[in-house]
Amino acid sequence: MTQRELDIAIVTWKPEGILRLEAMNLPHVEGVRYVVSWQLAGDNPQVPEKLSSRPDVEVHLLERPGVSANRNNACRHCTAPVVLMGDDDLTYYPEALREVIRIFKETPDLDVAMFRHDGEDKYYPDASCRLGIPLPKGMTAAAVDLAVRREALQRVRFDEKFGPGAPVWQAAEDEKFLLDMRRAGMDCRYFPVSICCHDHPSTGLRAMTPGVAAAAGRYIRLEYPLSWIPRIFLKAWRDQRKRGKFLPALRNMLRGAMSNGDK
Q1: Model confidence, pTM
Q2: What's residue 263's pLDDT?
Q3: Is a pLDDT exceeding 80 seen at residue 87?
Q4: d(CA 223, CA 183)
Q5: CA of 149: how far to CAs of 101, 110, 190, in Å?
Q6: pLDDT over 90 at 50, yes or no
Q7: N or C: which end of the chain has fewer CB within 10 A?
Q8: Are strands 6-13 and 32-39 parallel, antiparallel or unpaired?
Q9: Could you tell me what percent of the chain has a pLDDT over 90?
């Protein structure tokens, strides 16, 4: 039996989610397993035979809401030494997955690696670098770019007060996860390796809803404790270029920055 070296923790939700996963045509890669958390799957969840017949695919159900809860459930079932976060609308590059395994093998002190994905207008540095607090200018976290040594997941999990389905901070779960890793003193680094393609616009490329704005405000305050107020004003101004409205965005970001995330 091939030794498992990388688990990809994929999240999906609702009955149609498993069909999106089936359409991904997940590549067969030696040492790689796909661990799926299927959230709110409906009354009669059926895993398509194309997935259920594969020994490298494992599906677990979750009946409570929240993207962060879904990610934690996927991670909870991972047993490989390295866990890569995944979604149900990606195209993975087999050689890049092998590169993720190689990097962790050859960098024993590495706890968290940020990679890159194709298909979006998103800034990434050209060269490898360490990720401190704050992040290098222009960088933002996306869960699908993050691979984590499994031991690190015993110390830091996705904060379930953040992300879609949370009461107040309805985004920024990826950023908060990486921030918590850095705050815990873990060795976090960026590597300019494209591991997958994502052809759909992310939340960060659209005008902010009230819940997304609240999450942005809270995350900005955590990442930049000395300069968060002018940064929130700047982000509200920039939201206008995405057809957002300055004053509502500002109000909701300030609300989120001052909230405890419960209501």
Answers
A1: 0.95
A2: 75
A3: yes
A4: 10
A5: 11, 8, 14
A6: yes
A7: N
A8: parallel
A9: 92
- Whether the predicted pLDDT of 201 surpasses 80: no
Q: How many CB atoms lie within 10 A of CB 49?
A: 9
User: Is residue 102 pLDDT above 70, yes or no?
Assistant: yes
Contact present, 101 and 5 (Cβ < 8 Å): yes
161 band by pLDDT with thresholds 50, 70 and 90: very high
- Pairing between strand 32-39 and 57-62? parallel
CA distance 151 to 173: 20
